[in-house]
Specification:
binds adenosine-5'-triphosphate; two-stranded antiparallel ribbon
Length: about 350
């Protein structure tokens, strides 16, 4: 029997609701698949921890996670704490500390879910977006001077390194190669950003040569937003810088029906450190504590985690259960136009797993 050590970090807002639901679902899976079991350790890091300790997570927090097989993360965000503190103090500390340089976001219209795109059949929208997750616009390099004076100045520098670009693009080409269509779209903005993004484009030409069976094209990020809406079927696998990827994946999640469904994996492809899986949505304080959160984004993230752990049967079982449940409109939560509560969705998933 394989026993997986999983860190649970519910974080803030609806993260505190969806992560325990996900742990229940994983426990059910373990009961059905006697080959696997999960040992969960929960960490109470986030906004409340910050109010008590002045930091989102302890200084040596990464050491507590280092030997885990994977991390399941809820969300970080608090109405009383500035966003850059909640983001940099927890999620980015883990992503960057564990060099999880590939942020992978699959986007599909699940059975029974309506896309806001008119005339878009589910098979026409099946993407995986790879967002660079360790540098670029999120390098944290910059500063402010003369604060409060008319002469105040602020800078944020985007740092792209050859090593960083090569590894994420190679990862994306590899991923594209593993998918039936074997097509990669490289997102750029080299018309305006004429240094880093030009290097990004040049590296794409170089890496593409390693993958002769993968077709690829290049798209400016602004044109990519229109293409996602007008010609979704022309897209398969995508690779983008940190900020471009952040924006495009929110659009992608909305086009697939709801922010509440979309999953993410923050992957260390070299497996030196644990990878982290989380729903794409944030803390959603407007619905917090009401039991209204859609837990599917978290469950789908758990599917990505199981896949990463190499648990093929459990991966398939959970994804099939999710797709059965989304097919039923009576099990749609409010974000999908339904009236189901989070617990109804979890119970239905658990029932499907048992079948
Ligand atoms: P943060 O600041 O932490 O990113 P946010 O509240 O600004 O969080 P999101 O949580 O990403 O942004 O989502 C925006 C809105 O989408 C929420 O206010 C909520 O109404 C809706 N939403 C997001 N996730 C879910 C979900 N899982 N279930 C139902 N509705 C959701």
């Amino acid at each position: 029997m394989k026993k997986y050590q999983i860190a649970l970090i519910p974080g803030d807002g609806i993260g505190k609701e969806v992560i325990p639901e996900c742990a229940r679902v994983l426990k059910t899976l373990a009961k059905c698949y006697s080959k696997i079991s999960f040992d969960f350790q929960e960490f109470d890091w986030g906004g409340d921890y910050y109010r008590q300790h002045g930091v989102m997570m302890p200084e040596d927090g990464l050491d507590a996670l280092r030997n885990k097989d994977a991390i399941l993360f809820g969300s970080a965000g608090d109405p009383d704490i500035p966003d850059h503190i909640t983001l940099w103090g927890l999620r980015l500390k883990i992503c960057q500390g564990f060099d999880q340089y590939a942020n992978v976001r699959p986007t599909r219209i699940l059975p029974g879910i309506k896309s806001p795109l008119r005339q878009c059949e589910p098979h026409q929208l099946d993407w995986v977006i790879v967002r660079e997750n360790s540098e670029g616009e999120y390098s944290g390099v910059g500063g402010r001077a003369h604060q409060g004076h008319p002469t105040e100045v602020a800078t944020d520098m985007s740092i792209l390194t050859r090593v960083g670009v090569e590894r994420v693009q190679r990862f994306a080409f590899n991923l594209a190669q593993s998918r039936p269509r074997k097509h990669l779209t490289v997102i750029t903005k080299s018309n305006a950003q004429r240094h880093g993004m030009v290097m990004w484009d040049e590296i794409a030409v170089q890496i593409a040569k390693e993958f002769p069976d993968v077709t690829w094209d290049k798209e400016l990020v602004d044109a990519a937003t229109a293409r996602m809406i007008n010609r979704p079927e022309s897209i398969d696998t995508v690779v983008a810088t940190n900020l471009h990827g952040d924006i495009l994946t929110d659009l992608a999640a909305a086009l697939a029906g709801s922010l509440g469904i979309a999953p993410t994996g923050n992957i260390d492809p070299e497996r030196r450190y644990p990878s982290m899986f989380e729903p794409i949505h944030g803390s959603a304080f407007d619905i917090m504590g009401k039991g209204l959160a859609n837990p599917i984004g978290t469950f789908w993230s758990a599917v990505m985690m199981l896949e990463h752990l190499g648990e093929k049967d459990a991966t398939k079982c959970l994804m099939t259960a999710i797709e059965k449940v989304t097919t039923n409109p009576a099990l749609h939560t409010r974000d999908l136009g339904g009236t189901a509560m989070m617990k109804d969705v979890t119970e239905a998933i658990i029932k499907e797993i048992h079948l």
